UniProtKB/TrEMBL annotation:
Binds and transfers iron-sulfur (Fe-S) clusters to target apoproteins. Can hydrolyze ATP. The lineage of its organism: Bacteria, Pseudomonadati, Pseudomonadota, Alphaproteobacteria, Rhodobacterales. CDD domains: Mrp_NBP35. It comes from Roseovarius pacificus. This is Iron-sulfur cluster carrier protein. Homodimer.
Length: 396
């Protein structure tokens, strides 16, 4: 692959800006409503915003933004899908492909295919922010997005109910396991303000979102009050933030958007995504400097030389891994029994002079490595790499 080819292969993601997932542990908490209003709030700041309706089984974003469901998208000259546009926001959704009355009956591989298409095969142009409206839960779609794309972070939506908060905790833990930064928690339906007397009634309790954010040491982005106009706006395709910009709910949406566009920046790390053709010397990821108190399981630089693969970690430690040790540590199904963990790979079959020929990013949590013996299905998580051998501390 030439340098030109490398640049072209990276372009589908290079112009998408910050990819932010809007997530929830359970359904019915107003996640899609938040996504629609948040997209308009960000666009109102002058940002170029796109929305991927990643809830393939229950797409609702087109209806909330007033996009007709009977108009399938067209193709651009570059053979990419042209996204719909509404209120200055670009949108792609399964609802545009299947219509209102046809269910999306998809198995896992097809889910992955559609998600890949929605992100890499859509003519987004240049974006500042791409919001991903996820389905509820911690299933295939969440894992596919976390593993295949370098998400800048996730916003987790909950209601103040205890049952919702318990499920949110599980969702937050899943995101942490795949190294997706938590940009913050939003508490939706936090209270109802009587339009006549102004009294606030906390129908679903109060302050649960703040408490769970504090307990998990993640930012609390704000509370969105109940407002019947939110429902009306979603049904008419005119989100609340357009028709009632001075309402408490609209102001809360603007506050969340301001927090996301102005704060919650990522710490120093490798420039993602990357596809380093080690053998050809192209595509090596740009690095960053270690920081005091940095994450011991986040790499900031990669290099390869005669001694092996060198990893610089964010906490200032350096690590050298022999290529053969890396190959023998592969945990893929061809090298390890998935049930027992027993090694299937015969060490005698691995050449002493084996080297990596290609190293690429896998989401935010791992690297993939192809070797000179032809093996290319190994994925190495950052914690697994850090634990491979003793590392030496360096000055930060």
């Amino acid at each position: 692959m030439t340098a030109t080819d490398q640049s072209a292969s990276a372009s589908p993601l290079a112009g998408l800006g910050r990819m932010i997932a809007i997530s929830s542990g359970k359904g019915g908490v107003g996640k899609s409503t938040l996504t629609a209003n948040l997209a308009l709030a960000l666009a109102g700041q002058g940002l170029r915003v796109g929305v991927v309706d990643a809830d393939l089984y229950g797409p609702s974003i087109p209806g909330m933004l007033g996009i007709p469901g009977d108009q399938p998208p067209t193709m651009a000259p570059n053979n990419k899908v042209i996204p719909a546009q509404a209120h200055g926001v670009r949108v792609i959704s399964m609802a545009m492909l299947s219509g209102d009355d046809r269910p999306a009956i998809l198995r896992g591989p097809m889910v992955t295919k559609y998600l890949q298409m929605f992100i890499t095969q859509v003519d987004w142009g240049t974006l500042d922010v791409l919001l991903l409206d996820l389905p509820p839960g911690t299933g295939d779609i969440q894992l596919t997005l976390a593993q295949a794309f370098p998400l800048s972070g996730a916003v987790v939506v909950s209601t103040p109910q205890d049952v919702s908060l318990k499920i949110v905790r599980r969702g937050l833990r899943m995101l942490e396991q795949v190294n997706v930064p938590i940009l913050g928690v939003v508490e939706n339906m936090s209270g109802f303000t009587c339009p006549s007397c102004g009294e606030v009634t906390h129908i679903f309790h109060q302050g649960g979102g703040q408490k769970i954010a504090d307990s998990l040491n993640v930012p609390f982005l704000g509370s969105i009050p109940l407002d019947p106009a939110v429902v009306d706006g979603g049904d008419t395709g005119r989100p609340l933030i357009l028709d009632a910009p001075d309402s408490p709910a609209a102001q809360a949406y603007h506050a969340v958007a301001a927090a996301l566009s102005g704060g919650a920046q990522e710490g120093a790390g490798l420039a993602l995504p990357f596809d380093w053709q080690v053998a050809e010397g192209t595509g090596k990821p740009a690095g960053a400097a270690p920081v005091a108190g940095g994450d011991p399981e986040r790499p900031v630089a990669l290099d390869f030389g005669a001694e092996g693969l060198h990893i610089q970690w964010q906490d200032g430690a350096g690590q050298m891994i022999d290529p053969r040790d890396l190959r023998l540590a592969c945990q893929c199904a061809a090298c390890r029994d998935e049930m027992s963990g027993r090694r299937l790979l015969d060490p005698a079959s691995v050449p002493l002079d084996i080297v990596p020929t290609r190293i690429w990013s896998v989401g935010n949590y791992a690297i993939g490595v192809a070797f000179s013996d032809g093996h290319s299905s190994g994925i190495y998580t950052f914690p697994a790499l850090r634990a491979m051998q003793q590392v030496e501390a360096e000055d930060v």
